[in-house]
Write a structure and sequence with these properties.
Residues 308-440 form the NlpC/P60 domain. The chain has helices at residues 2-21, 42-47, 59-72, 88-98, 116-124, 213-219, 311-319, 337-346, 356-359, 376-384, and strands at 55-57, 85-87, 134-136, 138-142, 146-149, 170-174, 179-185, 191-196, 200-204, 208-211, 225-228, 232-234, 248-250, 254-256, 275-283, 289-297, 302-303, 309-310, 366-369, 391-394, 397-405, 408-415, 418-420, 429-431, 435-440, 458-461. It has a six-stranded antiparallel sheet. A five-stranded antiparallel sheet has the order 9-8-7-4-10. 21% of the residues lie in helices and 26% in strands. It is built from ten helices and 26 strands. The longest helix has 20 residues, at 2-21. By secondary structure, the chain is an alpha+beta fold.
Length: 464
């Protein structure tokens, strides 16, 4: 018994003695340093503001900013203003700028290298040799959420065998009602190369309906209308008309309302007593565009106009994506960092460029630039003065400021991960966050010696 008790006392003492010699770093309760449960509620940040409901930009100011964006930002295209014919050299230029095969090896979903002949076939499917010297401008509209691709292929490709998230052929996505100009068709006849307001890329032909330019753009201006203010909204399921059944609408999408629809007249098998009757674009069997009624449940998070642009609303809108999976180029039916920012602002009627590279330098916004001559202290001070809704850019990424804790800036962003260095540690702790998260900005590290703050290229302030 005595020997057993002695052995037990040794065993109980052993971990404590080891811990005393090698203190373990305590992990933050929510993995992210400085993050508390309270920080995951929009109310925490809104309550900290002195004038949370003050209007930052009026609708007239937003319209003026959007007009500047259309006129001054080279990444934004005015589809209505395009001429009746488009030069073939311009079309080839758009395609060649995007559809360039990387020189490095690419891997498929299987983890195996993609054969070089398969890549050549994909490039050949772009049919650049078939682009005419000049062509009539063909207008269309997207009828369902659809991927924009670098090449006319569904093949997902990655830079490493273990990667499954960043598909290098994925570019972006378009949503129902987005107007496009059809510029080219793939050799296999399954893809269009299209120009949208913010991007030029390949889209599956089945998601585009061609129609009259005036009718397409008039639909986008019709009133009354609804704006999706939730992360997403979905039309009611209907077997009677699959083309308008369970259609996913993203934050900021605007759809016309058929306000005079008779109360006793069914829409796709249902009376609209618990729904909004909206009008959606559909694609006919011959690829032509028409519009049909659909039901949007009254439970959907929608508004009868764009939301007032206030700091409180910016915070509320951003938190509607909290926890959503990160989707490079809008893959996984979600969105990436720049899509996250632009869709939040789209719910206020604010137009932003698609990619961070264009957002960060847009001349139409209130930009605070940084370069190598700006010190760490100057950058930190700018962040401490930042307001909710300010967009902070580093190469390839954007974060939205939501407030401060003890004067230290905090952001919400859609990120694959972050790194930080615990006090007294030599190595970084890398967090595979892979979604929309709240993080303090100052602890973030780009590498073992460079704080992320020191890589900030600009802060875009969507305010006067």
């Amino acid at each position: 018994m005595r020997s057993t008790a002695l052995l037990l006392s040794v065993l109980l003492a052993l971990p404590a003695s080891l811990a005393a010699r090698e203190p373990a770093q305590a992990s933050p309760p929510l993995a992210v340093p400085g993050l508390a449960d309270a920080h995951l509620s929009p109310g925490f940040w809104i309550d900290a503001l002195a004038d949370a409901d003050r209007v930052v930009l009026t609708p007239a100011q937003i319209a003026a900013q959007n007009a500047r964006m259309q006129a001054e930002d080279p990444s934004i295209h005015d589809l209505e203003a395009l001429p009746a014919r488009i030069d073939g050299a311009q079309v080839r230029g758009w395609i060649e700028a995007l559809s360039k095969l990387p020189e490095r090896e690419l891997f498929a979903d299987t983890g195996r290298p993609v054969p070089s002949d398969a890549l050549r076939d994909i490039q050949a499917n772009a049919a650049l040799d078939a682009v005419p010297a000049s062509q009539a401008t063909r207008h269309g509209m997207v009828v369902a959420r659809a991927d924009l691709r670098a090449f006319p292929t569904r093949l997902r490709v990655f830079h490493s065998a273990g990667d499954r998230d960043i598909d290098r052929f994925q570019e972006s996505a378009l949503f129902p009602g987005d107007p496009v100009v059809v510029l080219h068709e793939s050799r296999d006849g399954e893809w269009y190369f299209v120009l949208s307001q913010r991007y030029a890329a390949w889209i599956e032909k089945q998601y585009v309906a061609e129609g009259d330019r005036e009718a397409i753009h008039a639909w986008g201006r019709r009133a009354p209308f609804l704006v999706v203010t939730g992360a997403t909204a979905r039309t009611a399921y209907t077997p009677e008309n699959p083309r308008v059944s369970d259609v996913q609408l993203e934050m900021g999408v605007r759809v016309p309302v058929l306000a005079e629809w008779p109360a006793m007249e069914a829409v796709n098998g249902q009376l609209p007593s618990a729904h909004h009757v909206v009008e959606l674009p559909v694609r006919g069997v011959n690829g032509s565009l028409s519009f049909e009624p659909a039901l949007l449940p009254r439970s959907a998070d929608v508004a009868s106009d764009y939301l007032p642009l206030t700091e409180a609303n910016l915070i509320r809108q951003s938190f509607k994506f909290l926890g959503e999976r990160y989707g490079w180029g809008h893959s996984y039916n979600t969105r990436d960092c720049s899509g996250f920012a632009s869709e939040i602002y789209r719910s206020f009627g604010v137009l932003l460029p698609r990619n961070t590279s264009a957002q960060a330098v847009s001349p139409a916004l209130n930009r605070l630039p940084f370069d190598a001559g700006d010190s760490h202290a100057e950058r930190v001070q700018a962040l401490r003065e930042a307001r909710p809704g300010d967009l902070v850019y580093i190469p390839g990424h954007v974060m939205m400021v939501i407030g401060h804790v003890d004067g230290e800036p905090v952001a919400i962003h859609d990120t694959s991960g972050m790194a930080w260095k615990p006090e007294g540690a030599d190595d970084l702790v890398r967090l595979h966050l892979n979604g929309v998260v709240v993080t303090p900005i100052l602890p973030m590290m780009s590498n073992a010696t460079t704080p992320t703050v020191d890589r900030i290229t600009s802060i875009q302030r969507i305010r006067p």
